[in-house]
Amino acid sequence: MPVFTLADGATMHYRDECFADPWARPEAALLLHGNAESGEAWNGWMPTLGRRLQVVRPDMRGFGRSSPMPQDHPWSFDGLVADFIALLDHLGLDRVHLVAAKVAGPIAIRLAALHPGRVRSLVLLGTLVAGQTTLGDRHASWMAHIREHGVESWARWTMRGRLGAGAPPAMVEGWSRLMGATPLSTQLGFIAQVPKLDVRGDLAQVAAPTLVVTTDDSGLDGVETTRAWQKHIPGSELMVVPGDSYHVAATHPELCAAATLDFIARRAAS
C-alpha cells in the first residue's frame, strides 16, 4: 500500500482506488475516518463509491498503518488539515469530494473553510462541531478507561453507543478490533485534544455544497442539535436516517454511499 512522508518525517498510509470503467474520467473523493480507525472504516462504501469515483482513503496521522504518534505529540487540527492538503498535492488532486465521519467531520469543515478551492462537495456523517459540548462528562471516563484497560477494551465498552442496539455481535466485535489496533500513545494524545475542538465559527465559511447525515436517535447529538449547526452552512442539506447509531457511516454504508453519489449528481456535478 502507498505511503506518503509528511513534512515532519511521519508517514501517512493511504489507499487510492477506482473501479470505474477504463474509459471513464472519474472525479476524486477523499474519505476521512473517525477517531481510532483507519481507511478500512470505509470498506463498506467501496462497492458503491469506487464504481463512480477515484477514492482516496488515508489513515490519519498516528492511526492505522501510519506512523504512531508519541503521547506528547503537539496535535493541531489545522496541522491535520495541512496533512491532508499535502496528500492531495502529492497525488496531484486539485479538487475532491470530501467525505468525513465522526471527529473527522470538524477537520473536514475546517479544511473546506480554509481551502474552499480544493473541495467540490462536503458530506458529514455522524459528526460533531464542538467537542466539549458534545462529549461532556464522557471524555474523562473514556480517558481513564483507556489508561487502565487499553484501547480495545475502551472501544468494546463504548461500541453499543457507537453502532446502536441493533448492530449484530460480529459487527461489534469487528469494529472493536479495528479500533483497538490504534497505538495507545496515539489514542491518549489525540483524544485529550478532542474537547478543544470547536469549528462553529467556520460553518458559515463553507462554500461547497454540503450534506449532513445523522440518525433520528443518535447517542452523540440529537437531530435538533445537528440541525441547529447544519443550518449555518449555506445551502446545506440534512439527511436523517432511522436508527440509534451515531456512526451512521459504519452502520448504513450502502445507504450513505448511494446518498453521497446522489448528492454529488444533484449539487456538485462538473
Describe this structure in words.
Helix 2 (77-91) crosses helix 3. The protein has one domain: 3-Layer(aba) Sandwich (Rossmann fold), CATH 3.40.50. Strands 1-2-4-3-5-6-7-8 form an eight-stranded mixed beta sheet, sandwiched between helices. Helix content is 40%, strand content 16%. Helix 1 links the parallel strand 3 (28-32) and strand 4 (54-58). With 270 residues, the chain is an alpha/beta fold. This is Alpha/beta hydrolase. Residues 30-248 form the AB hydrolase-1 domain. GO terms for molecular function: hydrolase activity.
Note the main attributes of this structure:
single chain; 270 residues; alpha/beta; Rossmann fold; eight-stranded mixed beta sheet; 11 helices; 8 strands; AB_hydrolase_fold; AB_hydrolase_1; hydrolase activity; Alpha/beta hydrolase
Structural class: alpha/beta
Give a quick account of the main beta sheet: strands, pairing sense, barrel closure: 8 strands, mixed
CATH architecture grouping: 3-Layer(aba) Sandwich
Number of strands: 8
N- to C-terminal separation? 30 Å
CATH topology: Rossmann fold
Secondary-structure element series: EEEHEHEHEHHHHHEHEHH
GO molecular function: hydrolase activity
Protein name: Alpha/beta hydrolase
InterPro entries: AB_hydrolase_1, AB_hydrolase_fold, AB_hydrolase_sf
Domain AB hydrolase-1: 30-248
Layout: helices, strands, pairs:
Elements (H helix, E strand, L loop, with lengths): L2 E3 L5 E7 L10 E5 L13 H4 L4 E5 L18 H15 L4 E6 L2 H11 L4 E7 L5 H5 L2 H12 L1 H13 L5 H12 L3 H8 L18 E6 L7 H8 L6 E5 L6 H4 L1 H15 L3
Parallel strand pairs: 3-4, 3-5, 5-6, 6-7, 7-8
Antiparallel strand pairs: 1-2, 2-4
Helix pairs in contact: 2-3, 5-6, 5-8, 6-7
